[in-house]
Write a structure and sequence with these properties.
- The protein is mainly α.
- Helix content is about 55%, strand content about 10%.
- It has a three-stranded antiparallel beta sheet with strand order 1-3-2.
- Strand 2 and strand 3 form a beta hairpin.
- Helix 1 packs across helix 4.
Length: about 120
């Protein structure tokens, strides 16, 4: 695998993935995208260029793990879409972060304000 640790059981959790791979899943949670659109979103988030040699092997790993589905838009362009398992991984990561971040009512209010 490119950046991820070796996954030995059949179920993948966010903890089995790199932050880069988690960010790809988060981007795809919005809508299916082609590779260049994912690259642009990552570059906007990181504020620096994302190398094709880093992006596409990680996308392939996520496909191999069953978290992302790859389909062909045309002969040169592939589209990537979050699978149900990928959705569950993103949701599990959000739950894990919120469980640790929301330690009191003030923090709960901060999160509720973000959602409005």
């Amino acid at each position: 695998m490119s950046e991820a640790q070796t996954v030995t059981d059949e179920s993948t959790a966010a903890s089995d993935l790199t932050a880069f791979q988690q960010n790809i899943l988060t981007i795809l949670a919005e809508e299916p995208m082609y590779g260049l659109a994912i690259k642009r979103e990552l570059e906007a988030y990181y504020g620096s260029e994302v190398n094709h040699g880093r992006l596409y092997p990680n996308l392939d790993d996520l496909v191999d793990l069953g978290l992302v589905e790859k389909s062909e838009l045309d002969k040169r362009t592939n589209q990537y879409e979050l699978t149900d398992e990928g959705h569950d991984v993103v949701l599990g990561q959000i739950e894990w972060v919120l469980d640790r971040f929301v330690t009191d009512e003030t923090r709960g209010d901060e999160v509720r304000e973000l959602l409005e």
